[in-house]
Amino acid sequence: MSVRSAVRAAAPAAAIFLLAGCLLALAYYHDNKYLSPPPYGADGVLDLTDADLGRPVPLVDGWLLSVDGAPAAEAFIGQYSNFSFAPGGTSAFGSAVYELELRYDGDAPERALMLYDLLRNDEEIYRLMMYGIEGDMYTIDENGYLVRPEGFDSATDGCTFNFWWGRNDDLGLRTADRDWEAIDKLYAYGQIVFDLSGIQMYLDNISNVYNTYMPRIVFGLMEDPEAYVAEFRQQLQNAGIETCMEEVQKQLDAVYGDKK
């Protein structure tokens, strides 16, 4: 094959590589989180202004990283290839906590509530925070229950946002490894809010009796335990414990009837 023929044969491939290189270069300079303009996080805080609300802001810099309970140190995303290189890290594996506080100081403070609304009420975002990436960290079976992949270790494979204060049972998933029928029977009794206004005086008396007798019972500081416990029970009766139990049962019956 002549040189000219070889060049002609290689030209299409070279053009493809050149085009791909140009696209990668454009992406690197125009869509690269490490080259994005301010704001940048620092010491676990990222300050946002009105100018930042209309564009994506990569959360790269300023994170506080704590590996296996070690003191937190500032880091950026991608700084460490594994935990052994991070401050306090002794192994490539383990658990870590990343913290970054987003602060907004501008003319639209309601934006903070809009963010909270997304975190709590958007199904995709809520489940991403609570359970991780669907299809990778969990799947949903035919009964709608969450199933972790085989070999999944929550200590090394999971993520935790401590989002209990934003819990949304309408979007949450039940795990397939629990007996939810039995749990639902117990949970029903956690839905009542007792009205204690009519028995508060008795409850105060019971609390005083408990605080008087129980420390000595716990530490065995009595000569005759049986007699002392009998005296304790009598004092509870005198304080009105039966009245309190009757009132609580009355309110339970009013809500649940004879439900067992």
Q: What's this, in brief?
A:
This protein is mainly alpha-helical and 260 residues long.
Account of the protein in words:
The chain is mainly alpha-helical and 260 residues long. It has 8 helices and 7 strands; from the N terminus they run αβββββααββααααα. It has a 3-stranded antiparallel beta sheet, with no helix packed on it. A two-stranded parallel sheet has the order 1-5. Strands 6-7 form a two-stranded antiparallel sheet. A hairpin with a 5-residue loop joins strand 2 (63-67) and strand 3 (73-75). Helix 6 (200-218) packs antiparallel against helix 7 (225-239). The longest helix is centred in the N-terminal third of the chain and has 28 residues, at 3-30. The termini are far apart.
